[in-house]
Design a protein that fits this description.
The protein is α/β, with parallel strands linked by helices. The protein folds into three domains: 4-114 and 136-153, no CATH class; 167-270 and 295-336, no CATH class; 363-717, Beta-clip-like (Beta Complex). The protein has helices at residues 4-17, 22-35, 41-62, 69-76, 87-101, 133-136, 141-149, 276-291, 300-324, 363-370, 476-487, 501-506, 584-597, 714-717; strands spanning 169-171, 186-188, 214-216, 226-231, 244-254, 259-265, 402-403, 416-417, 422-423, 494-495, 517-518, 523-524, 549-553, 560-564, 573-576, 579-582, 603-605, 623-630, 637-638, 645-651, 661-666, 675-678. α1 (4-17) packs across α5. The longest helix has 25 residues, at 300-324. It binds S-adenosylmethionine (SAM).
């Protein structure tokens, strides 16, 4: 603590260190001491941040144009309401004056901490009849701006009303759910929170909050909660002030693994409404003041989002540690509860008309999934070999964690993670240098083909233009065309095999008529026979996954799914669908086997190039099966019509298209924590197959499943 002189010396030393002379600092310090009724704590807090800001505000105010003087005058009116100086104050002023003579001292100053909840004079509670920082220090252009942004914070500002007298809780924008899925938002809050925001209840501290959050008993644990309690000008001479101001940072996880941070500022009886953008901007400005310079791309929003992502990652790691030490259910960090089996009876859909289609599972899985909420009904402790911190086991450039907030298993049933397709047995995939002719590669190129003045021969099959932009995204026109294939099937070319390999594998002697395959646009990437480097912009999918993904257990009964934990722009490559490359006959066998075993189906036809006019041999009619060997793509669930991913065939190392890669790209902007989905192309009306399509839980208003009661009219749902 120390004497007032000592404290003043330190404060001035701290200011000196960041470039403020005593001449500049002393009057402001005096002013603040008056405001805080000689309470040093709010001034010393955060390495004298209040003092530094107040000095800056005062400096700014000197440049305030005359037009803004009226506002200052309004504040000046508050002056008489302020508490009068007592003897102590006078003594302190004298001490300060003394201190002024000594310029040699350089007390230690802590580096200001960024992002820590702290008490701010500007956000000080309206002391009903007395204290106002704004009143004490003339409003500057900056403070005026702040006042405009946080209009109702200052209760006595002339002419200011409280048009949005609402909640005091500042809630960071919550992770966005997948559009059009109605969800009960079950956020599990920190221990201090009770119920936020349905308007019906408030927190213990008197806060309400925006959003739709139902808090439950479990929490992320105290370690994830930071609370800063700052004394707020409590003193005998200040009347009508409340005892403390509390600023809390609460981090809560939702039932489906989303993370929400809420900042709660107890501001007594004041009402105010501000947007998070305003808060972020102000914090950024303050950081700038404190640090004098900031990284140009600093964004408090991003910083907070990073905090949320770290919570998810830490939660995942904790769950793994707990699982290993057998204490999963003793110490709940993220609300992991008892598991379910997600084994399911399966069937194979005969539908190939929608293009690449995943052969689907059936009801039992859904029934199992629905018991996920009831731990007592959970069963099947199937052992898996997954690393929940990274299901790819280091095979990808990024880690892909697994999160399960509902099931007794912390990870999905076993499979081998492979980052690239592998031939199972008989599929004919001939990758050889000699098969790539000169027109199908760019041997003379170097560096980045996208930067060349004239597109090289690798752009030939895409009409002389590359599919990618220099930023590594799909070009809009190309993406629009690929997406419209899924949306308006009838308008796109459908190819009918003279003898369909799929039908032939079902009935060799008398194959049924081909149901049709959609002719899709291909991406063609440069490859090893090209002269360009691996960083060439026309090599996107072959560089592998770069975005941050997470495998999570869905709440809607779809089993496991995939979500992004960062915002993704439109046209971004997400991942490939990887699996064993099967022939039609092998595919058929697998489907029957899967149907017997009752598993999710993970098979996708690679039929985008079947319309080449040649009658395909069985070994040329390839498909991918991710059941036993696959990558993260095997977890991506189906959504009717308005999925956020589009599947695009990609030619990399073989020029003929019976074998190709299947890559997923975002077809809209996707926000962090949205589930990633693609339209499997299932015809839910097709009941001919050995088993029936799964009951669709996609939540899309355009759901095609006739058994889905929530879908819109059949006509709307049916594809054009
Ligand atoms: C490629 S897998 C997707 C990952 C799967 N959810 C899992 O847990 O392994 C396809 C299977 O997921 C389930 N599924 C995918 N999308 C679904 C949806 N919209 N509604 C219900 N189940 C779905 C079905 O069981 C389907 O056979």
């Amino acid at each position: 603590m120390g004497s007032n002189t000592e404290r003043a010396r330190k404060a001035l030393g701290a200011m000196k260190l960041i470039g403020f002379s005593k001449k500049q600092a002393i009057p402001v310090l005096k002013e603040l001491l008056k405001i805080f009724n000689n309470n040093w704590e709010p001034i010393e807090d955060e390495s004298y941040r209040a003092l530094a800001d107040a000095i800056l505000d005062r400096q700014d105010s000197k440049q305030t144009p005359p037009s803004q003087q009226g506002t200052q005058a309004a504040h000046a009116d508050l002056e008489p309401l302020r508490s009068t100086r007592d003897d102590r104050q006078q003594y302190l002023s004298a001490s300060l004056d003394d201190t002024c003579e000594d310029d040699n001292e350089t007390p230690l100053v802590k580096r200001p901490r960024m992002g820590t909840a702290n008490f701010r004079p500007e956000l000080q509670p309206p002391q009903q009849s007395s204290v106002s920082t704004q009143g004490a220090l003339p409003a500057s252009p900056q403070t005026s701006r702040r006042q405009t942004r946080s209009l109702t914070v200052e209760p006595h500002a002339a002419g200011h009303e409280y048009p949005l007298a609402v909640n005091d809780a500042l809630v960071v924008k919550e992770p966005k759910p997948e559009p059009q899925i109605d969800r009960a938002e079950d956020f599990v809050a920190g221990p201090n929170a009770t119920q936020l925001n349905d308007g019906s209840s408030e927190q213990t501290s008197g806060f309400g909050a925006r959003g739709n959050i139902v808090h439950q008993a479990q929490s992320l644990g105290r370690s994830l909660q930071a609370a800063a309690v700052c004394k707020n000008g409590v003193g005998s001479t200040v009347q009508n002030t409340h005892e403390t101001s509390i600023v809390e940072v609460d981090v809560a996880s939702s039932a489906n693994g989303e993370v929400k941070m809420s900042l709660k500022c107890s501001l007594g009886s004041s009402n105010f409404s501000i947007s998070m953008e305003e808060v972020f901007k102000m914090v950024e400005e303050k950081c700038l003041h404190s640090y004098k310079m900031l990284p140009s791309d600093l964004s408090i929003g991003k910083l907070l989002s990073e905090v949320c992502q770290s919570v998810v990652q830490l939660g995942t790691m904790h769950s793994e540690v707990n699982r290993d030490s057998g204490s999963l259910h003793n110490e709940v960090v993220v609300p992991f509860v008892k598991p379910i089996s997600c084994e399911a009876a399966v069937g194979i859909s005969d539908d190939v008309a929608g293009g690449s289609s995943v052969l689907e599972s059936s009801e039992p899985c859904l029934q199992n999934s629905l018991v996920a909420w009831n731990p007592e009904l959970a069963h099947c402790n199937q052992k898996t070999t997954h690393d929940t911190t990274d299901i790819s086991k280091g095979e990808e450039r990024v880690r892909i964690p697994v999160v399960n907030e509902f099931g007794s298993e912390t990870c999905p049933p076993s499979f081998y993670y492979i980052p690239r397709n592998l031939v199972f047995q008989n599929a004919y995939v001939n990758i050889s240098i000699s098969r790539i002719c000169d027109e199908d590669c760019c041997a003379d190129c170097s560096g980045n083909c996208l930067s060349a003045p004239v597109p090289c021969s690798c752009a030939r099959i895409t009409g002389g233009e590359f599919s990618y932009t220099l930023e590594g995204l799909l070009k809009t026109a190309f993406l629009d065309e690929c997406t419209s294939v899924n949306h308006f099937l009838q308008e796109h070319h459908r190819f009918y095999c003279p003898v369909c390999p799929l039908e032939r594998s079902k009935n060799e002697g008398s194959p049924g008529p081909c149901k049709g395959h959609i002719v899709r646009k291909f991406i063609k990437e440069c490859w090893s026979k090209c002269g360009c480097g691996m960083q060439c912009g026309n090599r996107v999918i072959q560089r592998g996954i770069t975005c941050k993904l997470q495998v999570f257990f869905t709440r809607e009964g779809k089993g496991w799914g995939v979500r992004t934990v960062e915002d993704l722009p439109r046209g971004a490559f997400v991942c490939e669908y990887v699996g064993e490359i099967l022939t039609s006959a092998e595919l058929h066998e697998r489907a029957i086997e899967n149907a017997r075993n009752g598993k999710h189906m993970h098979q996708v036809l690679l039929d985008a190039g079947w319309g080449s006019g040649v009658v395909l041999r069985d070994e040329d009619a390839c498909s991918l099966d991710g059941s036993f060997y696959g990558n993260v793509g095997r977890f991506i669930n189906h959504r009717c019509y308005n999925a956020n991913l589009v599947q695009i065939p990609v030619e990399v190392e073989t020029p003929d298209h019976h074998y190709h890669h299947l890559a997923f790209f975002t077809n809209k902007k996707v926000e962090a924590f949205e589930e990633l989905t693609w339209d499997y192309g299932i015809d839910f009306d097709d009941m001919e197959g050995p088993s029936k399509p799964f009951r669709c839980m996609c939540g899309s208003r355009y759901c095609r499943d006739p058994n889905n009661p929530r879908r819109m009219g059949r006509a709307a749902a049916k594809r054009k």
